[in-house]
Amino acid sequence: MKIAHIAPPWFSIPPKNYGGTENVVYNLVEEQVAQGHDVTLYAPGDAKTSAKLISFFPKSLIDSGVPWQSQLKAYYHLCEAVDDIKGKNFDIVHTHLSSSSDLFLFPLMAALETPHVMTLHSRFPFDRLPNGWTGDADHLYMKWAPTMPMVAISEHARAEVPYPLNFVGVVYHGLPIGQFRPARRKRGDYFAWLGRVVPDKGTHLAIQAAKEAGVPVVLAGTVDRSVQASVRYFQEMIKPLVDNKQVRYIGPVKMKEKINLLSRARGLLNPIEWEEPFGMVMIEAMALECPVISFARGAATELIEHGKTGFLVHDVDEMAQFIPRIDEIDRAVTRQHVEKHFSVRVMTEKYIKIYRQLIRAHKEASRQPIPSVIRRKQLVNPDSTRVKTPLPDEAAHTVARATNHNLKEKAGN
Fold first, then answer.
1. Which of 103, 105, 98 is nearest to 82 (CA)?
2. CA–CA distance from 296 to each of 167, 170, 381 (Å)?
3. Quick one: which H or E segment has residue 72?
4. d(CA 158, CA 262)
5. Using an 8 Å Cβ cutoff, are 272 and 200 in contact?
6. Over 90: is that where the pLDDT of 382 sits?
7. Which one, of 136, 156, 135, 90, lies nearest residue 117 by Cα?
8. pLDDT per residue over 202-252, tens digit each?
9. What CATH code is assigned to 1-174+343-413?
10. Rounded to whole angstroms, how far apart are CA atoms 205 and 118?
11. Of 255, 264, 301, nearest in space to 282 by CA
12. What is the CATH number of domain 191-340?
């Protein structure tokens, strides 16, 4: 199959430290190439990939010093990628909605004749800034949503979307299991916390739970120096609690360091304070035979089997109470759980199945003649009760609408 991926341009692929979406794109592309597919990746020039790489500038935007608020280069990257794809014969185009600039893909892809799909990696609203400002522009882009087949990364993520998106399936993220092998070293006595150092990730709550339970905790993660709120949170809420005895902060970790940290930890503490759509760190920990104690929020209830691969709790006190019970978990079972449900092989197979359904539905819709009277008839969007009279230039999109409708009838949700 000839596949094109348009990656977000902000972080390198794979990412150096933080970059959950970029890790997923990297793993998916590498596995698709390994399975024999012809894959092209549209990403900045610092990407490392086995696929064919097409770039429009040499370095990812964050590493180039471009702030999140400046989206002109991001738009240029997406626009050039779509234009290049129009001149080529791909079977499927896979895009990724992760940050606000990715919303540009809705209008840019609207007239694309090649079958395409978009994975929703993050949460609405996308019209927001790191400083907490939130706008109301998301709904403007929903004008093009009915013609964009969407994949959610968890059932929770799909259920909480405030718009009638055209979901064609749910595909959990997957890990390259061969790469995530537990380091065969003596297990430590510490618990780990890993992620971006922001209030939503609950760094301060992990410290609080560890102190209540009387166990050491090692914190590893990135402080976004470009966001004053993140810097202030670290300086005021985290740094004063780091004593390098019970509480250690080791900064961002690369893959080898992450594997060593989680392999030797008694468990991972994940006291999230937001509705996280997935949670890569949880499956990474479990793949390394490190059980997880997480707040029962977001997709955590889909990833963790309570009492088998970790524990689901509701507050810091409960987390502290379950910390002494961590050795009840069979660590081999946690890895087997990831191998069965969250491997890159499983993820890739599910995406390929969705690709084939979309391609088949597109071909069937393309064979259906478009009546000349369609310009004068009213069409009803299957995802909405609102009736809309198409404008003359909308007739070209009728095939796309029919494709999505046919796919829903065959594949369901």
1. 105
2. 25, 20, 36
3. helix 72-86
4. 29
5. yes
6. no
7. 90
8. 999 999 999 999 999 999 999 988 788 999 999 999 999 999 999 999 999
9. 3.40.50.2000
10. 34
11. 301
12. 3.40.50.2000
Are 19 and 46 spatial neighbours (Cβ–Cβ below 8 Å)? no
The residue type found at 232 is: R
> What count of other Cβ atoms lies within 10 Å of the Cβ of residue 351?
22
Q: What does the alpha-carbon distance between residue 310 and residue 368 come to, in Å, rounded to a whole number?
A: 52
Main-chain phi, psi angles of 26, to 5 degrees: -60, -50
User: Do 191-340 and 1-174+343-413 have the same topology in CATH?
Assistant: yes
DSSP type of residue 370? -
- The sign of the torsion formed by the CA atoms of 202, 154, 255, 3 equals negative
User: What are φ and ψ of residue 118, in 5° steps?
Assistant: -130, 135
Q: Could you tell me where the beta strands, DSSP code E, fall in 98-140?
A: 116-120
How is 138-201 classified by DSSP, letter by letter? HHHHGGGGGGSEEEESSHHHHHT-SS--EEEEE----B-TTT-----S---S-EEEEEE-SGGG
- CB-count exposure of residue 256 (10 Å: 0-12, 13-18, 19+): exposed
Alpha carbons 175 and 251: distance in angstroms, whole number: 23
pLDDT at 69: 87
> Nearest to residue 203, comparing CAs of 192, 193, 212, 213?
193
Q: What is the pTM of this model?
A: 0.86
- Sequence spans of domains, the chain: 1-174+343-413, 191-340
Residue 373 has pLDDT above 50, yes or no: no
